[in-house]
Each structure stands twice: as C-alpha cells, then as structure tokens.
Amino acid sequence: MxxxxxxxxxxxxxxxxxxxxxxxxxxxxxxxxxxxxEVLALLRDGSGRxxxxxxxxxxGLRAWLEDGxxxxxxxxxxxxxxxxxxxxxxxxTSAAAVHPASAVAADPFPPELVTSCLIRALFRQLVTTGRxxxxxxxxLDALRVxxxxxxxxxxxxxxxxxxxAALSATLVPHVAHLxxxxxxxxxxxxxxxxxxxxxxxxxxxxxxxxxxxxxxxAPVPGTATLCALGLTTGGRWAQARTALHxxxxxxxxxxxxxxxxxxxxxxxxxRYGVEDVIEEHLRAIVSHVVLRLSExxxxxxxxxxxxxxxx
Length: 311
Description:
Strand 6 (261-266) and strand 7 (271-276) form a beta hairpin. This protein has a domain at 47-104 and 186-297. Strands 1, 2, 3, 4, 5, 6 and 7 form a seven-stranded mixed sheet that branches. Helix 6 crosses helix 7 and helix 6 packs across helix 9 (161-181). It has eleven helices and seven strands. By secondary structure, it is α/β, with parallel strands linked by helices.
C-alpha cells in the first residue's frame, strides 16, 4: 500500500473565510499537482493487466455471510423489521454504535458528523464540476436537496455569525487537501459519486449497506475493472481503510467481481493510500462481518428498530 503525507509547503494556499477563494484562485498558483496526479497514476498503473477472479468467489462469500445473517435473523424473529448494517455499526463496539439513536439524542449534530457531511458534499461537487465558490455556502446548497440532511442545514442556517465563521474556518484545511488530492477524471472513466449499495441477506431481514464516495469504471464480468475512492474526514486511518474494504466486499457481492483498486483520501491530514483489492482482503472482511453478526445475535443490543447506520 502506498501512503504519503504531503509536506506543508506542497499544499495549496487558501485565503481566510470571508474572502474570495477557491475558483477565483489561479490553479497555477495553487501549488504542485503531484498528489492528485500521483493518486491518478497509481489507480491507472497496471490497468492493462487487470486481474481475473474465480466466478464462484462472490457466491462463496455470500454463502458464508448468509450463515451469520441467518443466525441473527432467527434471534430477532420473523416479524422484526429489516436490520440495516453499515460500516459504523459493524466496526463499532460502543453502545452508541449499536444504538445510533442514543448518540443522536445526546448530540444530534456532533462536530465530526457536521464536518463529514459538509466535506463530502464539497467532494462530490469537486468531482462533478472541478470547482467551488464559497465552501460552506456550496456545501449547504448541496445538502438542501437531501431530505435527511434538512435538519442539519437548518441548524447551521440558524447559527450566530461568529459560530458560522468558526465552522467555515474548520473547513479550510479539508478544502485545501481535497483540492490537492482529488484526481480530475475524464468522462470516459464514468465517475459517479455517492453510489449506494445494499446487499440483502437472510431473505432481506438483514441488509449490508454502504455508500461509495466515488466509483470509476464500468464492471466487466470476471475481470476487476472498477476503482473506488473513499474519503475520510477524521478518525483512525486503519478503521477508514477497513470500511473501504467492506465496501469492496459489497461491490463484489453486487456485481460478482471485486474492484480492481481502491484509494483512501484523508481530508484532515492530506494523506492518501492506494492498493489492489485481493481475495485475502475480502475473506478477512467477511470473517469480520460474520463475527460481528454473531456478536449481535448473542447480545441484547440486537434492536429490531435499528435503522441504517450509514452516514
């Protein structure tokens, strides 16, 4: 796995909140493009030698998962609502991870969630249009069309001017790093953001779900052709990498073939990593998921009312 932390002097310069920024900055003055060019080069390297996978791999992984999901579904009962399990619930060990509603009740808009929602909206805009206006304003405009984010948008709209300025300031390093890290994909790569995937197990009573920040390429049966980019705005690198492997598993179950390669971008620190998806990654994640399903089956934390845990 390639992992690089750009030097501070290689990052794009950004003005303070409240001044003209972003698309008004000449890209030639925005510092080296080495980071995003390197990410793109690593995704393309060896593309003429795409690996082929056993057609039975996906079916074998699904059968393994079905065993764990059936145990959990049996404990919850036939009348229970479908249980949606996303990366946060699968990797979480705290009560809040198993009962997301309890965490929401305590703090409906924790700083980490606010930053994640805003930066992901900006990431989607950068991939689609290649530019921003005012970061906070653009992110809020994007979130206004998402029904499940309207409460967050309203909360930010009602902030005092000093609080809003402070929030805008927290976005500055993320914006700089995104600009430096995010490749510019040609339309022939078929880039698509916010790609949702749901894999029903146990007759739909357990659903593994997730959201790709970005997928590029078109699936080809039996050959790894897709590349996936994941974005993390904070937290542990290892956990974000595991969640990206989990998404690679979901794509394997959805299309029958794993992604060719995955990249992880860390907007808080400007780090990035690119790696091949190999069969060992998928089997390790399935083992992890099955273990977590078994823990839920044997725990009172298996709540029939638990909803989709994805951000």
